[in-house]
Amino acid sequence: MSKEIEDHRILNRSGNEPFSSVLERHISRRGVMHGGMGMAAMTMMSGFGLVGCSDDDDNDGGGDTPDVEPLALGFESIRGSKTDAIVVPEGYTAQVLIPWGTPLNNSVGQWSTDRRMTPEYQAASVGMNHDGMYHFPLSEESASREFIMALNNEYIDQSALWAPQGGPTNQQGGDRPVDEVRTEINAYGITIVRLSKNSDNIWSSDTGSRYNRRITTGTPIELSGPVRGSDYVVTAYSNDGTRTRGTNNNCANGFTPWGTYLTCEENWPGIFIKNSDRYADDDRLGILRERSIWGWETAASQGSNGEFARFDATPAAASARGDYRNEPRTFGYVVEIDPYGNTTSVSTETAALKRTLLGRFRHEGCWPGKLTEGEPVVFYTGHDARNEYIYKFVSAANWDPADANRPGEDYDRLAIGSKYMDEGTLYVARFDADGSGEWLALTPDATTQDGRRLSDALGIGADDMAGVLINTCDAADMLGATPMDRPEWGTVDPASGDVYMTLTNNSDRTAEGMAATYTDDASSIEALGAGYDTAPVNAANPRPDNEAGQVIRWREPSAGATTFEWNIFVFGAAAGDTDNFSGLTELNQFASPDGLWYDDRGDGRGILWIETDNGYDGVLDYTNDQVLAVVPSTVSIGPGDQAVVNPDDQAQLRRFAVGPNGCEVTGIFATPDRTSLFINIQHPGNWPADPNQNVQSATEATSGTVRPRASTVVIQKLDGGAVGV
Ligand code: FEO
Ligand code: CA
Ligand code: CA
């Protein structure tokens, strides 16, 4: 996400102990361990990361099994880069694929760099600012040559969108023109497009494929799960509270074993305003006042059926049935999409359902846990805001392999999704100082830290699960969850079940701690202070002002477990930083880890890919955003004991690719044969080089100035082999 749409307010007013404090005590404890800790604690951590505590030689607890040769990265770490081009290792190529504006069908004409964007063209072409994405096979046999791609288009870049006319109209004040608003709404959302590669290994989109479609911030979508049909989501558009229009700020993603796509609503509060009668959740999630980020509500008089009026949630009628006071409550969810397009389970034309039981907040993404027949299906999600939380969903139904995706068959995958995602338990994480943790169930009958029934503490009905979900963040506060340094992407090693999650940065937590100076003036975009009485500060705390972020890892005894063990996998840093706990060098220094993917290569072996969205000058001065790779089984906790990746491991953590100026690198997967690695270049400043072509080299530097286009990039080896090794 660009800095432009980041929200720097701290909205979590709970006094829960911040993660940095837990981490500080955890690190101190490890120091004690090396000095001769008691056997009980050592046994607890055995097999998960501590030197001398593991019972195999890998001692990282994840990935390779002792009798399998570990993977070895097959490329040399590349140097940083600050150019209008992508850089990849020697022996690799990179091509541009489906840049913003690539037509999905033959009805709207071709892209050209002087094209004036219209609602109709944008609705029929690839959206803006690519983010999370995933691939869905058309057959098992062809899965590495062709597939349906589902792609998030996280947000809009108005300067690129409106370049031919010199920028947007009335962005700062006055009414926005209806065509501009409709176009912007259509530039958000999801792109679904069939992709294939030719005999020269060049990938392209299949214009006119029956699978191609867009889901935008205006597309009708049904709600599912406990919030569906509740009074919380009754609007003038949906008097029975079963549907809404659109999904927005779709950031990271996920997928299900039954062949559906998960897209997650992150910074959606910015598209709404509410000037009176605000709910507690409006404040907690940051619904704006007066004017929304793009001013879409100012077109209200030009739309019908609340097309634009819905972006102003200020009560305007006698009851919720007559206005859009509840419209923001229809956002903030994980949305499940059938990429194959079967609509049997829905009353809309959109093969999608908002899965409300996975919580309501600024969802970054949603990642499936280790899948085991006869055990619950698990998903991990995170709330990307400073000092917010990590969540886990555990299905009530146990996994039945008969529900696995059957490529090529048309059937009701969303009905399978309802089986696993509409009944179950949502938990929030508490990370304890001794390296253990606990999942706290978010149910109406849960007991809060101060001994009350959660439903009473929230002021909702005794069995009101919808009320718990609408107020997910407050419920998590009350149970004592651990505030984190902005959870971004997660990923799971499907063999061990180890979960990795990026904590990108948390610069708003000061070394001195913060007094409770919270104000509910949500119209200000500046940091307003936190509700914490103190933030932990002392010389031993390695991350009091965390600009560079880290990757955390945890392991659970089983899918449905309510306990886990955790450690820090790697800290971001500039090589010269005093808090460079992982010992990074010029060749692998990074900051603000964001995208993440555990690339399972079989036999319990895999590569962890890390993508960055960095604003920290210590690294930014050296390189643009990047992709790094590490084989978890080749790194280990060592001297210093702060993180799994330590100063002895620097040859194992390698810089694989660097993006063009101004971009963030995000979204990642590879074809099943691992010969094509797909990443996204979001908000590039002046790239790709040829402003008129949809397919071109990604490594050619732009000459002059172009209208930038966010794009997918496919990285392949010149010899056609598997990437990374
Ligand atoms: Fe859209 Fe948290 O990144
Ligand atoms: Ca992100
Ligand atoms: Ca980010």
TrEMBL record:
Residue spans of biased composition, Polar residues class: 691-705
InterPro entries: PhoX
Residues making up the signal peptide according to the UniProt record: none
Pfam families reported in the protein's UniProt record: PhoX
Region Disordered, annotated ranges: 688-708
Domain of life: Bacteria
Name of this chain's protein: PhoX family phosphatase
Organism: Kushneria aurantia
